[in-house]
Write a structure and sequence with these properties.
453 residues, mainly beta, Porin, 16-stranded antiparallel barrel, 4 helices, 6% helix
Length: 453
């Protein structure tokens, strides 16, 4: 075990990458990427990255899963999380005229287990390393007199809700928040527009086929769509403060779902996601980000949500530091478990979209029932009420190396502490030989590295 840990750690250090500032509205200058000029789209850019890492759990849980971490859940095992390629023709934010472009992002790695569109490469292999299309969208900007115009995205795209994103090279930490893992959609198929009413106010509106859904009978696990809407406040406090509040409401439970053994009309039961992100640039070194989140499923009366606070400190060109403190409440009724579940198998997450159940001992309506924190006593058969807390401290180190071309390098170590801060005697962590948790907390030490181009 120790030798495997050392080998995994060494492998992680051998992977390289570039770290981008954490906020979605990044004010840093990205590395130059190859650009091709063509008569249709103008400049076409090619970029990408490779991310690999390892996470150590001193408890060595029997199922090799660090519960609550999803993308970084595998204990003491080196994984290539993402090999991502972007081909895009961006819109120019300084151009007020009509514009068009596109973006295509493909990904290969263990992260793809969670991010598939329904029936799109999600059954192409049983390996933990899988293919995925993260984005395949057309982009438009249309001018509107007396306003900043409207930006429109049409096709398949990552959700605009939330602070953290699928592309982990632009997130501040290796591991993800509970909010990102369990409180938000990952992707949509449809369209949405951002109407720039003034320099300070944006209005968002869109329609799509649902969470991780494609189009048509084979592309969606039910027969209804979803709506997206919200607002953005920009350029507040001399441009240092932005606020983004978005909601996504639609039908998400798969056809054939039941409540306590009774079928219901899945096309009438809504799931609502609400998320707000406040980003405040305190000075050139410090940025604070606050995220508020709520998700509710009407059919199962399952509610979850919480708050995550980020503090990001840029020390110099080589070092950045990030702290994240989060509280995430996961509550359900009628004996059902909540949103926070583990998916140990390579196809467990996509099985959940198909209403395929692997463990009937627990009742989890919104994910595969492989393991949903059923340690301790009182989970099954009664009200499920757990509040998770996590504290993560991480650094991003960019070695002062001379890299060829546009290559970039970053190494990100982190330490994380997860704990139950509500829920009585529940013990979801450190799954033992009996298949249930044995502890109310866990510590993980992780490191990843990213090679970008």
């Amino acid at each position: 075990m120790f030798l495997r840990s050392v080998i995994s750690f060494a492998a992680a250090l051998c992977v390289a990458g570039v770290f981008a500032q954490a906020a979605r509205a990044d004010d840093t200058v990205p590395p130059a990427h190859p650009v091709w000029v063509d008569p249709l789209f103008g400049g076409i850019q090619l970029s990408g990255h490779i991310e690999g890492g390892v996470s150590f759990n001193p408890d060595s849980p029997k199922n090799n899963i660090s519960f609550g971490q999803a993308f970084t859940d595998r204990d003491n095992s080196f994984r290539v999380n993402q090999t991502m390629l972007n081909i895009e023709a961006d819109l120019d934010p300084k151009n007020d005229g009509f514009q068009y472009g596109f973006k295509f992002t493909g990904m290969y790695g263990t992260d793809s287990r969670y991010t598939h569109f329904f029936n799109e490469f999600d059954r192409s292999t049983s390996s933990p390393y899988q293919w995925d299309i993260v984005e395949a969208a057309a982009l438009f900007h249309a001018p509107i007199p007396a306003t900043g115009g409207v930006d429109i995205t049409v096709g398949q795209y990552p959700t605009p809700l939330g602070f953290e994103v699928i592309d982990n090279s632009v997130n501040p930490l290796y591991s993800h928040s509970y909010i990102f893992n369990y409180g938000l959609p990952f992707k949509h198929t449809g369209l949405y527009g951002t109407f720039h009413v003034t320099d300070m106010l944006d209005l968002w509106a869109g329609f799509d086929s649902g969470v991780n859904a494609d189009l048509g009978a084979r592309g969606d696990n039910n027969n209804s769509g979803a709506l997206l809407g919200g607002f953005g406040l920009n350029n507040l406090l001399d441009g240092n403060l932005t606020i983004l509040g978005l909601a996504h409401v639609g039908v998400e439970n798969p056809t054939g779902s039941t409540v306590n053994g009774k079928a219901f009309n899945v096309n009438q039961a809504l799931r609502e996601y609400f998320d707000g992100v406040v980003t405040y640039k305190i000075n050139d070194s410090w940025t604070a980000v606050t995220e508020l989140n709520l998700v509710h499923d009407d059919a199962y009366k399952v509610t979850a949500g919480g708050v995550a606070q980020y503090g990001i400190f840029k020390w110099n060109d080589q070092w950045s530091f990030t702290g994240r403190a989060e509280i995430f409440a996961d509550q359900a009724k009628n004996g059902f478990t909540g949103f926070v579940c583990a998916f140990p198998g390579s196809e467990d997450a996509v099985d959940a979209q198909r209403n395929i159940v692997s463990n009937v001992a627990t009742k989890n309506p919104v994910g595969n029932q492989a393991y949903c924190g059923t340690g301790g006593t009182g989970t099954t058969g009664g009200a499920y009420n757990l509040t998770y807390g996590e504290l993560t401290m991480g650094a991003a180190y960019t070695p002062p190396l001379t890299m060829p071309g546009t290559l970039g390098l970053v190494i990100r170590p982190e330490a994380r502490f997860d704990s139950i801060i509500g829920g009585g005697r529940q013990k979801p962590f450190n799954v033992g030989a009996a298949g249930v948790g044995t502890k109310t907390s866990q510590v993980t030490l992780a490191i990843d590295a990213i090679l970008s181009f």
